[in-house]
Amino acid sequence: MLVVPQNTQLTTGEAAQLLGVSRPTVVKLMEDGVLPFSRPNSSRRIALHDVLAYKEQRSRQRREALDEMTADAVDMGVYDQAIGKARGSDDAAA
After folding, report:
1. What is the dihedral of CA 75, 80, 82, 87, to 10 degrees?
2. What confidence tier does 6 reach under pLDDT thresholds 50, 70, 90?
3. What is the pLDDT of residue 76?
4. Residue 68's beta-bridge partner residues?
5. Pairing mode, if any, of strands 46-47 and 9-10?
6. Do 37 and 51 touch, CB atoms closer than 8 A?
7. Model confidence over 22-50: pLDDT tens digits?
8. Is residue 53 over pLDDT 50?
9. pLDDT value at residue 74
């Protein structure tokens, strides 16, 4: 684990690596106003705390979407069927 001050400024490449996306994706998020940035010189810089907040927001949205999809599958009875098939496959392999 690495301890870094929250006011640390990252390059677009560092932010991309932390988010697990490409550098052009980070640049687009900045240009679209999703990620705030500064331009102390000709290059863009983004605050670590902004990158971490975006990452947490994205994770929360994914979890909520997955929960909603699971609830829909349960309502339609598809979830129980899939679990039963998976368990049957496990039993056959054992």
Report:
1. 170
2. low
3. 81
4. none
5. antiparallel
6. no
7. 999 999 999 999 999 999 888 999 999 99
8. yes
9. 80
Question: What tokens were used for 55?
Answer: 């990452």
How far apart are the two ends of the chain, measured CA to CA in Å?
A: 39
Q: How far apart are CA 2 and CA 10, in angstroms?
A: 15
Q: How far apart are CA 87 and CA 81, in angstroms?
A: 10
- Provide the 8-state DSSP code for 94: -
- Tell me the pTM: 0.67
Tell me the angle at which helices 48-76 and 12-19 cross, rounded to the nearest 10 degrees.
30
What DSSP assignment string belongs to 44-81? -BEEHHHHHHHHHHHHHHHHHHHHHHHHHHHHHTHHHH
Q: Give how far the C-alpha of residue 90 lies from the chain's centroid of Cα atoms, to the nearest Å.
A: 31
Map residue 34 onto helix, strand or coil.
coil
